[in-house]
Structure formats: C-alpha cells, structure tokens
Write a structure and sequence with these properties.
Layout (H helix, E strand, L loop, with lengths): L15 H27 L8
Amino acid sequence: GYAPTTTYSVHWLADPGFHDAVARYLEDEREAVAAESQALLDYTPFKKGH
C-alpha cells in the first residue's frame, strides 16, 4: 500500500488560449485528485494520527 502525497509543479504556457484551456482543465482535475487522495487515505493500512 501507499499513502498519496500532494506534489506541485510550475509551467509557463506562452499561448493565452492554451493557457486558459489548461487552467480550466486543472480546476476540475484538482477536485478529482483531492477526492481520489481522500479515498485512498481512508483505506491506507497505516495508523491514523501517528
């Protein structure tokens, strides 16, 4: 098993239209990743709070 860990990255997109499209996609993805991470944490074999 593993416990999910949030990571971050920074990218620069020169094309404003592409930048906006990626930004909209990432808004939705953040929510999905947060939900999946919580679901995985709920079933981790590790003790909570230690």
